[in-house]
Design a protein that fits this description.
By secondary structure, this protein is mainly α. The protein has two domains: 286 residues, Fido-like domain (Fic-like fold), CATH 1.10.3290; 77 residues, Winged helix-like DNA-binding domain superfamily/Winged helix DNA-binding domain (Arc Repressor Mutant, subunit A, Orthogonal Bundle), CATH 1.10.10. Strands 3-5-4 form a three-stranded antiparallel sheet. Strands 1-2 form a two-stranded antiparallel sheet. A hairpin with an 8-residue loop joins strand 4 and strand 5. The two termini are 21 Å apart. The relative contact order is 0.13.
Length: 396
């Protein structure tokens, strides 16, 4: 089917409201729009460059964990959580009680993503994997009473106080099995010639339109994107996360999804999606470059610590994966006594590697702020992509 001929679905009358029944997606797709070809080429190239970094960066899995934490923070923030990335790297005991619910949701996201990626090593992407991921996402959090791990068996809606005044009403739950089976078949259909980035774009739209869970659809829908790319070999590691871009361009994101349903304009959505991939992959590559630069700088700096240099390097390596530390935790990581741990932390504070954030005289907590700032910069670095933004505007 050509994008230009696509009909997105129909509205079905239910009791006192209408639900939207989307068209099936498991078929051939093509388009006449040359802008899509250019964007597809650019997004594929940017994604390939990002993936190359995950293959050459030493200890890349340590840094990938911070990518996942950053994505967890941003994706959850789109849904209303209010923790910052500095909060999310702390232990639960160091989190103020009023932030613990938000903190738990972010931790669940990290756990769900790690478990899903691990599963992809032995099992293909599937509806079962999404249900398992959803169960982990909502476990022990504010969504634990909203059927974790189960597709909904009642009507949900977006916006408004009920389906009758909602901004959007997804398909009735009785229509979901056929829609979900069709989407799953689309992921694995080798008889159609559709580029994987286009499949990922259409799959995200379809998932968000079906809205198959009672809660957590936005987060699972965003997780679906890297999971699809990993399962099809476009990424070796979960290094691409679109949430920062989608949060920054939230109104355009929702408008693009809505435009498909109201105006059948699947091409506009795919252009938006490819631009998001291109910008995010480019910024992800820059993040790796900054990490490598910081690592080189710190490797040189710790030589000034003399006999403590070896332990300092070991602790910094630990901090790349867990950028918050206490003296007691340092003792465990390095298997040293309290005084050497305290002296080492003090030396790293002096070198501007660590910064104390708790304000306590005892049980102090230190963070690897320069490292965290790289991931904070990843959010705002979109502002440095003037040429990308200009190109995006032209292609829309």
């Amino acid at each position: 089917m050509k994008f230009e001929e696509f009909k997105s679905g129909v509205w079905r009358q239910q009791y006192q409201y209408k639900s939207f029944l989307p068209a099936l997606v498991n078929h051939e797709w093509s388009w006449d729009d040359p802008r899509l070809n250019v964007l597809l080429e650019n997004a594929t190239r940017a994604l390939g460059e990002l993936n190359a970094y995950t293959r050459i960066v030493p200890d890349v899995d340590l840094f990938i964990q911070m990518h996942i934490r950053k994505e967890a923070n941003t994706s959850s923030r789109i849904e209303g959580t209010k923790t910052e990335i500095e909060d999310d790297v702390l232990s639960e005991d160091d989190i103020p009680p009023e932030k613990r619910d938000d903190w738990q949701e972010v931790q669940n996201y990290v756990t769900a993503m790690n478990a899903a990626v691990k599963t992809l090593a032995t099992l293909p992407l599937s509806l079962r994997l999404l249900r398992d991921t959803h169960a982990t996402l909502l476990s022990g959090s504010r969504g634990e009473h909203k059927s974790p791990g189960e597709f909904r068996k009642s009507q949900n809606w977006i916006g408004g106080s009920s389906p009758s005044d909602a901004a959007f009403v997804p398909p009735h739950h009785e229509d979901m099995p056929a829609l979900l089976s069709d989407m799953e078949a689309f992921w694995h259909n080798r008889h159609i010639q559709v580029p994987h980035l286009i499949r990922a774009a259409i799959s995200h739209y379809q998932f968000e339109t079906i809205h198959p869970f009672q809660d957590g659809n936005g987060r699972i829908g965003r997780l679906l994107i890297p999971l699809y790319l990993i399962s099809n070999g476009l990424l070796d590691k979960p290094a691409l996360y679109l949430s920062a871009h989608l949060e920054k361009h939230r109104s355009q994101y929702y408008d693009a999804l809505t435009r498909v349903r109201t105006s059948h304009d699947i091409g506009h959505w795919c252009r938006f999606f490819l631009q998001a991939v291109m910008a995010t992959a480019t910024n992800g590559r820059r993040t790796f470059e900054k990490i490598l630069s910081l690592r080189s700088e710190l490797d040189s700096a710790v030589f000034s610590l003399g006999r403590r240099a070896e332990k300092a390097q070991r602790l910094i390596r630990h901090l790349y994966g867990n950028p918050a530390i206490s003296i007691a935790h340092t003792e465990k990581v390095l298997e040293i006594n309290t005084n050497p741990a305290r002296e080492l932390i003090a030396a790293l504070v002096k070198l501007n590697v660590l910064a104390e954030i708790s304000g306590f005289k005892r049980n102090r907590v230190f963070i690897f702020r320069r490292y965290l700032n790289i991931f904070r910069d990843h959010e705002v670095s979109m502002s440095n992509d003037g040429e990308i933004r200009k190109q995006n505007h032209r292609n829309l």
